[in-house]
Amino acid sequence: MAAVILQNVTKVFDGDVVAVSDADIDVKDKEFMVIVGPSGCGKTTILRLIAGLEEPTAGTIRIAGRAVNDVPPRDRDVAMVFQNYALYPHMTVYQNMAFALKLRKTPKDVIRQKVEETARMLGIEGLLNRKPRALSGGQRQRVAVGRAIVRNPRVFLFDEPLSNLDANLRVSMRAELKGLHQRLQTTCIYVTHDQAEAMTLGDRICVLRQGVVQQIAPPMEVYERPVNRFVGGFIGTPAMNFFDGRTELRDNRAYFVIGSDSIMLAGGLHSGLSKYAGREMVLGVRAEDISLSPYAGQAGNVLCATVRVVEPLGDRKDVVLETAAGLRFIIKVGPHTPIGTGDGVRVYLDTAKAHIFEPGDAGKNVILA
Predict the structure, then answer these.
(1) Which of 148, 188, 213, 255 is most enclosed, with most CB atoms within 10 A?
(2) Same structural domain for residues 230 and 198?
């Protein structure tokens, strides 16, 4: 078993800089866990703590049931793929991939077998005699992954390995990494700031903000049931729309009031929102849950707005709208929808999929409660 468990882990750097704060993360054996968050939120620090390249200020790190706080990196049986690939420029691809095995004094015939098998798996068997400077970015990335695979570690650690690749290559390499994990059945912990990578790669994703774990759950649960406003706004493209307003209860129904507009919320929320009645709150609605046509039973949930920007994206258009009060939000429409800058439109909100958050950047989702 190669589960990785962080219990109340904190890392404070010189100058009282708190990079990770009281983190509890439980990565299951053979799981692909993605840690996602904005730049500077502590993602890479967590990887380095697991690898042993940093020491925790407090808390315990366990790998395969063993506390490894005092175990040196070489004895943790983990392999890390760095953002810049960290290949030795004076060595060939074969020598780069074989290096760790040579340090272990593995027999030469075993090294050759493992390197060649891994190279075939990654489609780089024709590159073994080249040096890194003669490789493309995608080829270097494969070599870095191959160097980790030949070690046959308990845990793979990936630190934004696709960030230096162009957009099309990132998409294809995501699929390759997913397929590789399914073949190897090894525990993987993958760090990224790209929420699309998190959604497509992770069995579960851990959303991090300012060193604090916000939510750990399967990708669609995080998307559909964000625990707070930060998670709702960070996961999803385009970002979730947020409307400032207040909740009201009338005639055994709950409403959200945005300026002079009153939006009827989904049934069943009346009792759950009773303690928030009259309070300033935030309504969160994703772009795909706002339409130019009314939703069944919600024809009154309408906002009037003016089109400010139209962004054609091939399979759809993202449309930036602005209300008379200056509130901007985004909707998705079909690629051939006749809509242009300056048009006045009426849009309808599907509040069955909406969320209500407490005020503030990390205001909790009171719908879940």
Answers:
(1) 188
(2) yes
22 phi and psi angles, rounded to 5 deg: 50, 50
| 357, 363 contact by CB (below 8 A) | yes
Domain end position, chosen among 234, 259, 282: 234
Same domain, 226 and 322: no
Q: 94: part of which helix (H) or strand (E)?
A: helix 93-103
DSSP secondary structure code for residue 205 in this structure: E
Residue 207 — very low, low, confident or very high, per pLDDT cuts 50/70/90?
Answer: very high
Q: How far apart are CA 82 and CA 79, in angstroms?
A: 10
Q: Do residue 272 and residue 221 come from a single domain?
A: no
121 and 222 in a single domain? The answer is yes
Contacts of 8 (CB under 8 A, 6+ apart): 22, 23, 24, 58, 59, 60
Hey, what amino acid is at 206? Answer: C
Asked if pLDDT for residue 32 goes beyond 80, the answer is yes
Q: At a CB cut-off of 8 Å and minimum separation 6, what does 210 contact?
A: 21, 41, 42
List residues bridging with 345 in a β-sheet.
305
Q: State the residue range of the domain holding 303.
A: 241-357
pLDDT at 319: 97
Whether 289 and 217 share a structural domain: no
Q: Are 145 and 89 in contact (CB under 8 A)?
A: no
Do 248 and 226 share a domain, yes or no? no
Q: So what's the pLDDT on residue 1?
A: 62
Cα separation, 355 vs 243, in Å, equals 10
Distance CA 128, CA 126 (A): 6
On the question of pLDDT at 298 being above 70, the answer is: yes
Q: Model confidence at 21, in pLDDT bands (50, 70, 90)?
A: very high
Q: Do 347 and 223 lie in a common domain?
A: no
Q: Is the pLDDT of residue 343 over 90?
A: yes
Strand ranges (E), the chain? 4-13, 17-27, 32-36, 58-63, 66-67, 78-81, 155-159, 187-192, 204-209, 212-217, 241-250, 253-258, 261-264, 280-285, 290-291, 302-312, 317-322, 328-333, 344-349, 355-357
Same domain, residue pair 80 and 133: yes
Rounded average pLDDT over 33-58: 96
